[in-house]
Design a protein that fits this description.
Elements lengths: L1 E5 L3 H10 L4 E3 L2 H6 L5 H14 L4 E4 L5 H12 L5 E6 L2 H12 L4 E6 L2 H10 L3 E4 L1 H6 L4 H15 L4 E4 L5 H10 L3 E4 L1 H6 L4 H17 L3
Parallel strand pairs: 1-2, 1-8, 2-3, 3-4, 4-5, 5-6, 6-7, 7-8
Helix pairs in contact: 4-5, 5-6, 6-8, 8-9
The structure holds erythose-4-phosphate (E4P).
The site of erythose-4-phosphate has 11 residues, from α7.
Length: about 220
Amino acid sequence: MKFFIDTANLAEIQEAYDLGVLDGVTTNPSLMAKEGITGDDNVRAHYKAICDIVDDKVSAEVISTNFEGMVKEGESLAAIDDKIVVKVPMIKDGVKAIKYFSQNGIRTNCTLVFSPGQAILAAKAGATYLSPFIGRLDDISIDGLELIQQIVHIYNVYGFETEVLAASVRHTMHLIKCAEIGADVVTCPLNVITGLLNHPLTDSGLAKFLADHAKASGK
Ligand code: E4P
C-alpha cells in the first residue's frame, strides 16, 4: 500500500517524507490556493519545490476543461520534473486527454471520481491512478468506502492496471478500511498518517519501561 500526502504545504510534505513512509504527493487547485500559491510561474516553482522533497509521484492538476487545453497544460506540467503525474478531472475531454497522455508516456491521475462507471472509463483510457473521493461521498450520506470496494473488485476482475488511489480520506479508519479492501494508494492529510501512531497502551507502556529503567539505574 502506498501513502501519498494530500497537501501543497512544503513543511508537511517534508515531515511525512522524513518519517520514511511517503510514496508521493497529491495537490489540487484548492490546496495550492490554501498555500497562497498563485500565478503560473509561482505554481510551477512550487511543484518543482515539492518534487525536490519527494522521490516520485507528484500529482499536478490541470485547470483547463477542454482536450486541447488539458494536453497543452499537462505536457507543460510534465516537463517540470519526471516526478510529475498529471491530474485530470473525470469529464469527457478529460477521458480523451488521459488516453492521449497514456499513449505519450505521461502518467495520469484521474480525479473527482464518484462512481464505478467513471472508474471503468478512466481505466479503459489508460489512467495510471484513479482517485475516488471517499469523504465527499460520506458528506452526502453515500458510503465512500463501498465505492472503493466496488472499484477494486471490478479492476481485479478485468486485470485493469490503473491503481486505485483512495482520496478525500478524512481519518485513520478510512485509511485502515482502504487497506483491508486492498486500495493500491491512499492520499490523506499529514494528521491521518501520524494518527496511525497513536495508542494509549503504547504511551503508558513506554512510560512504564522508562520509569522502571530509571528506578533500576538509581536515577
Ligand atoms: C484528491 O487528490 C483530492 O486532493 C483530495 O483528496 C480531496 O479531499 P477533500 O475532499 O478532503 O478536499
